[in-house]
Amino acid sequence: LGTEAQDGIDVLLAQALERLGQGREMIPALRLAMAEQPRDDIAAALEDAIGKYGFRITGTTVDSNSASPRICVEFSETLVKAGVDYAPYVRSEHSDLAVSAEDRQLCIDGVQHGSRYRLTFRTGLPAASGEALAKDVEITQYVRDRAPSVRFPGRAYVLPKAADAALPVETVNLTRLDLRLRRVSDRNLLRAVQDGYFGRPLSQWQDETFAAEIAQEVWTGTAEVATQLNRDMTARLPMGEAIAGQPAGIYALTARVPGVEPYDDPGATQWFVLSDLGISTLSGTDGLQVMVRGLSDAAARAGVELTLVSRANAVLGSAVTDDQGLATFEPGLTRGSGGAAP
């Protein structure tokens, strides 16, 4: 066969492979045809095939809500796991960027919030399969400022009943928080634990059920917090006003970004125990020793009635603290197993 006939066969083979759903396999056929007799129509078909089925960039993402933002590019195939420095294959007007590869992603670290970046991924950038990027690809991405957000750094606190009581909160790009405090009654505490509410952040649909069936709203308000653009800020939320006159018990404080749809961002929830009693325990052969002291002054608390409860929520025994704040439960009460264990 002549060269032109062979080229025609290669092109027909490539077209047949595409119709059979094997577009990836048409690329070698078109490359062979191009090597035997370069032609504009074959070159155009090869470029089109690579754009649809070859090693190529399939998408880009910008992680701008992180304290250290990054731009990531997704490829159609897995990148080389080790032994290849991808930095020379990324051209940028910024010289302080770091390039890292993982699976199908090539990520650019060192970018800054509020800045625009033009990146060129250069011809020859290799895939693990041996394929390479056929031509330079330029992308432009803007790293926007971080979205306003709020979170609590801990899961649970014991908050003393004092005027200077406070909870820590972490915010990003916020100057004000909407706050709501709810109390869970003793009778509903077990349900809150069993239904997976206790000690966890709540989605909006969970919050609606929690507010309607489990907890009682006891206070609402706002808080002003300091901010620096795109910085993680830790603030101290004064709780004296919110807990004034409230009985000891389990509470949940919800902090939200003002004006944001709660189904998009339900905010953050901090669970805490409101009490002036601090309890510590020691277990030994002589039983369970319980020490009760005041959180406000660390003084022993006498006459405090304590109840030892099993995992099955049955009362195992009761004791009252003496003048040194000590109470003892008999050794036999702590030897149960399964649901009878304390």
UniProtKB/TrEMBL annotation:
What is an example of a Pfam family matching this protein?
Answer: A2M_bMG2
Q: Which domain of life is it from?
A: Bacteria
Spell out the coiled coil positions from the record. Answer: none
Q: Where is the Alpha-2-macroglobulin MG3 domain?
A: 274-342
Segments forming domain Alpha-2 macroglobulin MG2: 152-259
MF annotations from Gene Ontology: endopeptidase inhibitor activity
State the name under which the record lists this protein.
Answer: PAN domain-containing protein
Species source reads: Pseudooceanicola lipolyticus
